[in-house]
Amino acid sequence: MQTIWPSLAFMLVNMVALWVILRLNQRDRPQPSAPPPAQEGLKVLNPSEILGWEFQYAQTTASEAMEQRHTLANLYLLITGAAVSAVAAILGGDPARLRVPGVVLLWVLCGIGWLYFLGIIRLRQAWHDSARAMNQIKEFYIQHAKDLEPDVLRTAFRWKANTLPPPEKAWTVFFYSAMIVSFIDSAAYVGGGVLLSLDATLALSLPVAVAIAIFGLIFFAFHVWLYFAFLRPRP
Question: What is the pLDDT, as a whole number, of residue 51?
Fold first, then answer.
């Protein structure tokens, strides 16, 4: 059973490092200072222009967040395929002697997976911020539009400030992408643990196999918890 300790240590180091990143992400950020009050006689700008530019910017950033999420997921799948092929080539030579390089490669893939996982979370945050910005502009227009009552104009919009899905909502495309990365990440971790725990006869005892499988489930569950912990709004 002593061969499982490196796997356990690797998992704990990953979890502690990600917990520290989570705490740093949740720290209070300084609020921007308020702009100086407008002076009378200088209100000559057309507000519709800046509002239109701001809405277009928010719309563009939300669309880019979706596209980059797709790109991140595809890149990680390509990296995973290359890493698995490399591990297979390494073990095809002398499995008993070359299994340690295979473990290193799989656990490096696991570390890369964390970076992609955090990238998907950040893109979800960016998308939600952009959606909030668009809804804030819509609410401004609703309150100041001519010829239509606010309650009537508000019915034209499905998404409003009070109906926008929360950032931590499950079963979205961001959630599915994060779970794909989480599953591959956990599988790479388990694969590395299995290779490291093989004895000289390339056999794996049942207690060790069960322990590594449990570690893998814990590792995947930690990914899921971390997704919601990063995205859940602070009280």
Answer: 74
